[in-house]
Protein: Phospho-2-dehydro-3-deoxyheptonate aldolase
Organism: Boudabousia liubingyangii
Amino acid sequence: MTETFETSSVPDERNAWRGRPALQQPKYEDYQELNQVTSDLKTRPPLVFAGEVDKLSRSLAAAAEGKSFILTGGDCAETFVGSTADKIRAKIQTILQMSVVISYGASMPVVKIGRIAGQYSKPRSADLETRNGISLPSYRGDAVNGFGFTAEERRPDPHRLMEMYQRSATSLNLIRAFTRGGYADLRQVHNWNRGFTDNPAYARYENLAGEIDRALRFMEAVGSDFEAISFVDLYSAHEALLLEYEDAMTRVDSRTGDLYNTSAHYLWIGERTRQLDGAHVQQCASVRNPIGVKLGPTATAEDVIALSKVINPNNEIGRLSLITRMGAKQIYERLPQLVREVKAAGIPVLWICDPMHGNTVTSGTGYKTRRFDDIMNEVAAFFEIVVNEGAIPGGIHVELTGDDVTEVLGGAEELTEDALADNYETLVDPRLNHQQSLELAFLVAQMLGKC
Ligand SMILES: O=C[C@H](O)[C@H](O)COP(=O)(O)O
Ligand SMILES: C=C(OP(=O)(O)O)C(=O)O
Ligand SMILES: [Mn+2]
C-alpha cells in the first residue's frame, strides 16, 4: 500500500495529552491566533515519513543489542537565521566525520541523528529574565519568541510555529540532498577534513582518512560494489516540547492506522517535562516514533520502569532510549544503581550518554560554558559503568556545531575563559566546536573498541 497520511479518522490516543499538566509551554496572548496557525500546519505535508521512522526504529533496536552505535549531535537551540546552507553543511560534515572516526575505530556501524531541522524550542529554568531591573519573558527558542531583550521580541508569537515548519522543511531538503547527492560518499572522507593539520584532532583524522582511502582503493581494485558507501541516512531529531506544534504534525499512517509524529524521525522528552502523568509523556506515547527520555541525577529506576510502561507497553527493543545526563561529578554516584535496577526489571532500553547537560557552569567572565574535560570524563565513566553493570552503551547525544566557536573550555586547543568572548554564538547552551567534536569521537572509538 502506498504510504500516505490522513488527518481524517483520528484515533482517541491522539488527544490523550490534552488536559494533562503541560510544563514549559508558551503563554500566548491570543489562542485563536494559535488555532489558525495549527489548523494551517495540519494541512501541510509531513516532514518525515513513516517508513523512514520505522527504519530508524530498527537501527535503534540494533544499537540496544550492541550491534550499532547512535550518534546524535547538533545545536542546543537552532535559530532561524542560523539555518543556512553553510552552517547546516558544517554540522552534517562534523557528524559524518565523527561517525567515520567511531565506525572505523571501533568497527561498528554508526546511526547518525542530527539535532537539526526542528530543534527550535527550549525549556528554561526561569520564566523571566531580568536585566538592569527589567524583567521580560525568557527566550524559549525561535519557535516561541525572539532573543532580543525587548517586550515585543519576547512576546510568544504563534506564527513562529509556521516558520519552524518552513525552516525545518528547507533544512531537511538540504540534508536529503547532501546525504543522497554524493557529498556523504565515503570516498569524500579526505575532503571533509579542514583546517591545519598542526591541530591534533585534524592531524589524527587525516591519518585515519588516509587509511580509509587505501582500504577503499583496494576494495575498488578487487571490484567491490560501492552503492552502500555513496549515501548515508541522517535522521532528524528534536525535543518534543511544543505540544501544539507536535500535535499538528501528528498524522495517521494509512498503511497501519498508527499515529506518527511527522515533524522529525526521533523525538525526546526533556528532563524538565518527563513527569509520568504529564502531557509530554502522553503525547510521545501515542506515536510510533522512537522516543528518548532525558534522565538527570534525580531519576530513579521506579521512574524509568513507570515511564516504560506508558511509552513502551509492548517492550519493543529500541523504542525507548534513556539519555542520561548526570554530570561528571555525580555519574559514579547515580548511574550504576539506575542501570542495575533497570536491568533487573527486564525492560528493554537503549542507554545513551548526554555528557553536556550535567556539566554546565558559568565562567568567571559570565559565560554559560562547559569544561571539555568534564564532557570527556562523563563519556568515559558512562562506558565504564554501563559495561560494568552488564548493559550496553548504545550511543552519545551531544551539543555541537561545525563552526569554530569558542563556547566550551579546554580541548586540544586549550580554550581559556578569556577566549570564550572571541566567538561565542550560542543563544542557550555552549556547544563543542568542530575540532572538539572530533576529539570526542576519538575517545568514543577508543571506549567502544574496548567493549
Ligand atoms: O538545553 C537547555 C538548557 O539547559 C535549558 O534550556 C535550561 O537553560 P537555562 O537554565 O539557561 O534556562
Ligand atoms: C534542554 C536540554 O536537555 P535536558 O532536558 O537534559 O536539560 C537539551 O537537550 O538541550
Ligand atoms: Mn541544551
